[in-house]
Specification:
Blueprint lengths: L10 E7 L8 E6 L2 E6 L8 E5 L28 E4 L15 E4 L9 E3 L2 E9 H6 L1 E7 L2 E7 L8 E4 L16 E8 L6 H13 L10 H8 L1
Parallel strand pairs: 8-12
Antiparallel strand pairs: 1-4, 2-3, 5-6, 7-8, 9-10, 11-12
Bound molecules: zinc ion (2 copies).
The site of one zinc ion has 8 residues, from loops.
Length: about 220
């Protein structure tokens, strides 16, 4: 910012007579046996000098930390530059101030992640919700919304919520989607009744999910 003491002029007090040339603006130099009058190097020929401002030590500007508010527009991306006109360094000798560029860094979120305008979230579901299907509440960047879990959903399966992602940066832009990744949570069965129900379920649904991992089965399948 411009120095508050000298208002950017970098000088203090009234001009004094230059002590080097006594106000003449010229000094005498010897060149062999000749004398030359040359421009006084101290005052630049003006015959006057000014003391440097004690606050800014003749710089005309001082450094200051300031805080200011600015608006983050919807759709702002990580690494984006925002220009604040006239909020940069003070101009030289009271001239116009420069611009301030802000580089936006988006902090990681414990729930949501973002790629482009798509928002990703992982949502735990129970084995019954995944097997039978369910309507569950899922978080979005604007609060909760309902999501239909189709029957037979597998862990890792990704379901799309259209236009629940990042807001468009411009009026013509489309809003991004939210992708919900399903993670099936297996219950820790403690009581005998639940264990019996699961054993009964297993007898009714005799299947080997690892069948295709074994070579002899694969060759059987391909023959
Ligand atoms: Zn000053
Ligand atoms: Zn001088």
């Amino acid at each position: 910012m411009p120095c508050p003491t000298c208002h950017g002029t970098a000088t203090a007090g009234a001009a004094m007579v230059c002590p080097e040339c006594n106000g003449t603006g010229q000094v005498t130099q010897m060149g062999g046996r000749m004398k030359f009058n040359v421009q006084c190097p101290r005052c630049g020929g003006s015959g006057k000098v000014q003391r440097a401002c004690p606050t800014c030590h003749g710089q005309g500007t001082v450094a200051r930390t300031d805080s200011m508010e600015f608006r983050i527009k919807p759709g702002t991306r990580d690494g984006q530059r925002i220009r604040l006109a006239g909020k940069g360094n003070a101009g030289v000798r009271g001239g116009a101030a420069g611009d301030l560029y802000l580089i936006i860094r988006i902090e990681p979120d414990p729930i949501f992640s973002r790629t482009g305008d798509t928002i990703y979230v992982t949502v735990p579901v129970t084995i019954t919700e995944a097997a039978l299907g369910a309507k569950i509440d899922v978080p979005t960047i604007e609060g909760r919304t309902q999501l239909k879990i189709p029957p037979g959903t597998q862990t890792g399966q990704k379901l799309r919520l259209r236009e629940k992602g990042v807001m468009p940066a411009s009026a013509e832009g489309a809003r991004g989607d939210q992708i919900v990744e399903v993670r099936i949570v297996v219950p820790k069965v403690q009581d005998e009744r639940s264990k019996e129900i699961l054993r009964e379920f297993s007898r009714l649904n005799a299947e080997d999910p690892r069948r295709e991992l074994f070579a002899e089965v694969r060759s059987e399948v391909h023959q």
